[in-house]
């Protein structure tokens, strides 16, 4: 069946519904270059403004899956489970989580991306480890899953190519924050990746795409529905992203903190979220009755981490380097660190060189921020609040600007952070 791109744009612009055939045609022809970028830009803006119903979102996801290959792990003979986060600041959870889950005999095929904007990317973090290789062939990935049980690598170009094109387009046309587009983008990759179980970590707050609990719940429900229809065992955990996760933000810094967690230490919030997500993944994969936290304490997860990093050419013993220059900000009064805003810290870290402004930019392994206090902690006047690291001294000015108004010290008692906000299972 053939359609006219302009006609479909007009239909969505005027709040109409797109048929299954129309969506299939649009995605096929955008992937092959028949529908132009400017036409798809107009369409994504019309979708952002006017939305899509559940049937349209599902059709969009299925069309994006059909644009590429679909992986299959049935020959592995073990359950597979994966986690996907909608993106946050200091969110390094994938790093300790994948080996932790693999330590219980559930295979973790974690196909990941790079950071763009203020949220970091898992591959950029792991590339701070000398020698570590992000690109694996499908064959190498299957072999590592069989041997080690966990692999974190770049999603190959064959997986949901429509999403690759669309995501790049959305990033430069102000159309990232649309629920139908985020849901189809994430779910097309995860279903094509072929995991049997999937736990979604849907972030809520200033540092996340979803700023309110209601919007995050809606996104989670849409994604869980798509996953269930595709036969994936799936649930979504809604977690706070109003303040950074952990005390270290930036590529090498986040590897360092992940290794602390794998060694049985690390900040309480990072440990809590790692254990919560691991429990959920294992439960969905049929292994609900294991002591997850014990595997962090007794070194089983660390052993898996070492195997996983070595298998991709990385040196798991390498010490992470810090940026050549540092700048520390001190508390200017006594009190409680009432706010430490995730978005402000994320942008500051990005400007130090931890993230990229354009796809082709390189990131600095040692750039980022170490927090000496987290939101809710008591602080004393003159105490270091945070230290910034970068290889380019001139980056401090714009980074300090990003932090202005991003933290507040107030009189009063320290407040406990509620990290896990809700869970969606249907
Ligand atoms: N992560 C994705 O993969 N896609 C989105 O649209 C947003 C977050």
Question: How would you explain this protein's 3D organization?
Answer:
With 426 residues, the chain is an alpha/beta fold. It has three domains: 5-51, Transferase, Pyrimidine Nucleoside Phosphorylase, Chain C (Transferase, Pyrimidine Nucleoside Phosphorylase, Chain A, domain 3, Up-down Bundle), CATH 1.20.970; 74-311, Nucleoside phosphorylase/phosphoribosyltransferase catalytic domain (Pyrimidine Nucleoside Phosphorylase, Chain A, domain 2, 3-Layer(aba) Sandwich); 325-410, Pyrimidine nucleoside phosphorylase-like, C-terminal domain (Aldehyde Oxidoreductase, domain 3, Alpha-Beta Complex), CATH 3.90.1170.30. The protein has 16 helices and 13 strands. It has helices at residues 5-13, 20-31, 37-50, 54-66, 94-102, 122-126, 138-147, 161-171, 179-193, 213-229, 251-262, 268-284, 292-297, 300-311, 342-354, 396-403, and strands spanning 81-85, 108-112, 150-154, 197-204, 233-240, 248-249, 325-330, 335-340, 368-371, 378-379, 384-390, 407-410, 420-424. The longest helix is centred in the middle third of the chain and has 17 residues, at 213-229. The protein is globular and about 70 Å long. Bound molecules: uracil (URA). Uracil is lined by residues 86-87, 167, 181-182, 185-186. Uracil (URA) is lined by residues 86-87, 167, 181-182, 185-186.
């Amino acid at each position: 069946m053939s359609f006219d791109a302009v006609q479909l744009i007009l239909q969505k612009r005027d709040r109409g519904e797109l048929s299954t055939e129309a969506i299939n045609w649009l995605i096929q022809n955008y992937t092959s270059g028949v529908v132009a970028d400017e036409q798809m830009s107009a369409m994504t803006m019309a979708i952002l403004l006017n939305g899509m119903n559940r049937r349209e979102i599902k059709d969009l996801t299925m069309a994006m899956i059909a644009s590429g290959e679909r992986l299959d792990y049935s020959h592995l003979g073990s359950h597979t489970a994966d986690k996907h986060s909608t993106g946050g600041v200091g969110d390094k959870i994938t790093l300790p989580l994948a080996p932790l889950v693999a330590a219980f005999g559930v295979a973790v095929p974690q196909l990941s991306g790079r950071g763009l904007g203020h949220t970091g990317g898992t591959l950029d973090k792991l590339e701070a480890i000398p020698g570590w290789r992000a690109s694996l062939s499908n064959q190498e990935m299957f072999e590592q899953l069989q041997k080690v049980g966990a692999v974190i690598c770049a999603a190959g170009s064959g997986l949901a190519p429509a999403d690759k094109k669309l995501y790049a387009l959305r990033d430069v046309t102000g159309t990232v924050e649309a629920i139908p587009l985020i849901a189809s983008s994430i779910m097309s990759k995860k279903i094509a990746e072929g995991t049997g179980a999937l736990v979604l970590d849907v972030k809520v707050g200033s540092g996340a795409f979803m700023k309110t609990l209601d919007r995050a719940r809606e996104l989670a429900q849409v994604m869980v529905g798509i996953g269930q229809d595709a036969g994936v065992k799936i649930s979504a955990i809604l977690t706070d992203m109003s303040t950074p996760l952990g005390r270290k933000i930036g590529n090498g810094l986040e590897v360092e903190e992940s290794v602390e967690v794998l060694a049985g230490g690390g900040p309480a919030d990072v440990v809590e979220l790692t254990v919560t997500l691991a429990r959920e993944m294992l439960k969905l994969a049929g292994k609900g009755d294991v002591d997850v936290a014990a595997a962090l304490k007794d070194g089983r997860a660390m052993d898996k981490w070492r195997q996983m990093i070595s298998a991709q050419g990385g040196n798991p013993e390498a010490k992470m380097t810090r940026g050549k220059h540092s700048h520390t900000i001190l508390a200017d009064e006594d009190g409680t660190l009432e706010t430490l805003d995730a978005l402000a810290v994320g942008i500051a870290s990005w400007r130090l060189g931890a993230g990229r402004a354009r796809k082709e930019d390189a990131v600095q392994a040692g750039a980022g921020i170490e927090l000496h206090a987290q939101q809710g902690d008591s602080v004393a006047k003159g105490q270091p609040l945070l230290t910034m690291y970068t290889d380019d001294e001139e980056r401090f000015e714009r980074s300090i600007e990003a932090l202005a108004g991003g933290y507040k010290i107030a009189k009063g008692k320290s407040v406990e952070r509620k990290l896990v906000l809700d869970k969606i299972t249907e």
